[in-house]
Structure formats: structure tokens, C-alpha cells
Specification:
One of its GO terms (cellular component) is membrane. The protein has 151 residues and is mainly alpha-helical. It has one domain. 79% of the residues lie in helices and 0% in strands. The longest helix is centred in the C-terminal third of the chain and has 38 residues. The radius of gyration is 18 Å and the shape is globular. 22% of the residues are buried.
Length: 151
Amino acid sequence: MKKDIIIVCITALLVALFLYASFSKYFDYAYFQRSMYNQIFPHWMATCLIYTIPPVEIIIAIGLMQERTRLIALYAFFILMALFSIYIAAGLLHVFSKVPCSCGGIIKSFDYGEHLIFNIFFVALSGTAIWLKKSKHWKRKTVNHLHFNNM
């Protein structure tokens, strides 16, 4: 029961983050587009990302809200945030000639170090939720298996 509460609290934070991030991109769409076209990747890739990142964030948030899709959505959240984190870390390490942030809302006021810490925090939260969810599932499976075998 305690694990369930922790998973729900973490999930609520993850949902809030992705809904906030996606809608802030839509609310300041011109800024988001300019920022994406100012990234290091080719124009065609920026166009693709402009049209896919916000809806993917919304889809993941919706997946997190439903029990039957929560685990897969947690993995998707973890992977997407890890990729964003790697990109920011590469920028901090000067791997690219430029790495302008395309984040919206209050997050765009972060410097790269703050943004990386913020992202790593949410990667760790999603990893924790995955671990709790998997350990809960494994325990339930083991208990059901033992119960079935003892009948």
C-alpha cells in the first residue's frame, strides 16, 4: 500500500511536468519553433521534433494516468528525460558549437547546470517509480504463483 502511494505521488509529478512542458511549448509556439531551428541538428529534424515532442509528452502523461499503461509510460518518460539530459550534458561539455535551450515557461530561466540537475532529478524519480512498480508486480506474481502451487 505504501508503494502505491509513492508511485501515485511520483506519477503525479511526472504528469504535471510533461503537461506543463508540452502546453508551454504550444502557448509560446513561435519561441519553441525558433529555438528548435536554432539547435545543432538539421532543419528537417527540427521540424520533425517540433511536431512530435509536445504530443509525445502529452501521450506519455495520459499513459501515466492509467494504471494499465503506467509502467510503459514510466519507461517512456525515463527514456525521453534521459535523452534530454544527455543532450544538456553534451552542451555543458561543449560537445556542440551551440546548444540553445528550447524549453518553455519557468524552465527556460534555468542555466544548463540547473537544467541538468532538474532533469536528473526527474530521471531518478521515474526510475524509482519503475523500480517500485516492478518490485510490486514481481511480488504479486510470486505470491500468486506460490498460492496457486499450494492449492
